[in-house]
Design a protein that fits this description.
The protein is an alpha+beta fold and 414 residues long. The protein is built from 16 helices and eight strands. This is Mechanosensitive ion channel family protein.
């Protein structure tokens, strides 16, 4: 008996021509399948063209660049695949009407593809949000990648649950509850991801690291600028242009140094010393004082200080035939005052921050004289130039105060 259904039109025609029932079924299925694939391909092509033209035209008319980013992340193209996929799913029962086992397999396959397509659309949209936020100044140093990855992880988990539900025939909720019993195993598998997720939240909330920060992490050999923060890792571009990858959770479990405070303070610390030979330190004689008065930076200081000391010694009847008696100036003390005045008058020093020249604890090599100050320019190259300029002068001026810098002498083995 002939059926009036369009899906059996070719089948009925073949039967009339004398084909066997089995052959007619297969030929009918193949013809219908080819027809549906052609229709789906044409619809897909037309839909993509229409969506692309619409989205491109809309992007040109709007002021925001968000729609341009959506296009670059292929969101319209992924959405265009929805209609052809629906057509395929709807026509599967028609095509495989005589092959129920194949119909079930193809239908499940198309539903799995639908889940994957949904995930691709979500990923394109989230990537577009990420790229757009990175163009905004207030989000440039925020770990946007981490948050997007968290959403994608949840999306993939739901997607995997959906795929298993489709393949096994178990309802989604029942499948999810079943997996709940295996939560310990899941936690073990996703341990690093969970740690990274928690760390990302803490890093963001506590503002520990931002993109662009200079950090030093000795444990991982990192010393440079943070260029990326995501759920699992933090990427640091070292000063030698190598890239160091640090686990995100290490930022809260280990100690590291963030130089952001220095960068935002307007000054970079100079903390360096020279070691003066103890044997060259002495009290100043009147001849020494007259000679040091010719050094302009401290001439007024020596004039005022020598008068104050002379008055004290006279008022207290100090016997100055022995130089150690009473109050005296030393070449070491005068040199310290000279360095302080020199640094205070240096144009590249930040005078709003701590500035001092101090004598440190004596060592077997001598007595360290340390300059503690902050350069006004925090850029590395300029900072090194400023510090080099200051200590060039320090090293050259030591001899004018009858002092010597300690140098380790190595005996000649010959």
């Amino acid at each position: 008996m002939k059926t009036l259904s369009i899906r059996h039109y070719i089948y009925d025609l073949l039967i009339e021509k004398g084909f066997s029932e089995t052959s007619a079924q297969y030929i009918n299925m193949i013809c219908l399948l080819l027809a549906v694939l052609v229709i789906a391909f044409v619809v897909d092509f037309i839909t993509k063209r229409l969506l692309w033209r619409f989205s491109a035209g809309l992007a040109k008319r709007t002021k925001t660049n968000f729609d341009d980013i959506l296009i670059s992340n292929k969101l319209p193209r992924n959405i265009a695949h929805i209609i052809p996929l629906i057509i395929l799913i709807e026509f599967v029962p028609q095509v495989f009407t005589d092959f129920e086992y194949a119909e079930d397999i193809i239908e499940k396959t198309l539903k799995v593809i639908a889940v994957i397509l949904t995930l691709r659309i979500i990923r394109s949209f989230l990537n577009s949000i990420k790229d757009y936020l990175k163009t905004l100044a207030k989000y440039k140093d925020k770990p946007v990648d981490s948050y997007i990855q968290v959403f994608m992880i949840f999306a993939w988990i739901l997607g995997v649950f959906g795929i298993f539900s489709i393949l096994t025939g178990i309802t989604f909720l029942k499948f999810a509850f079943t997996l709940g019993t295996a939560s310990a195993v899941i936690l073990l598998i996703f341990k690093d991801t969970i740690l990274g997720f928690v760390a990302s939240i803490q890093v963001s909330i506590n503002d520990m690291v931002r993109i662009g920060d200079w950090i030093t992490f000795e444990k991982y050999g990192a010393d440079g600028d943070v260029i990326e923060i995501n759920l699992a890792t933090v990427k640091v571009q070292n000063w030698d242009k190598t890239i160091t990858t640090i686990p995100t959770y290490a930022l809260i479990s280990d100690s590291f140094k963030n130089w952001r405070g220095m960068m935002s303070s307007g000054g970079r610390r100079i903390k360096r010393s020279v070691i003066i030979k103890t044997s060259t330190i002495k009290f100043l004689t009147d001849e020494d004082i007259q000679r040091f008065k010719k050094i302009q930076l401290i001439s007024n200081f020596i004039e005022q200080k020598s008068k104050e000391i002379k008055k004290f010694n006279t008022d207290n009847a100090i016997d100055k035939s022995v130089l150690i008696n009473g109050r005296n100036l030393t070449n070491f003390g005068v040199f310290r005052k000279y360095l302080l005045t020199y640094v205070e008058n240096h144009s590249a020093i930040n005078h709003d921050m701590t500035l001092m020249v101090r004598q440190l604890e004596p060592t077997p090599q001598g007595i360290p004289m340390e300059i503690y100050a902050f350069s006004a320019d925090i850029r590395w190259q300029n900072y090194e130039f400023i510090m080099g300029d200051i200590f060039d002068h320090v090293l050259a001026s030591v001899s004018y105060f009858d002092l010597e810098i300690y140098e380790l002498s190595v005996a000649n083995s010959d």
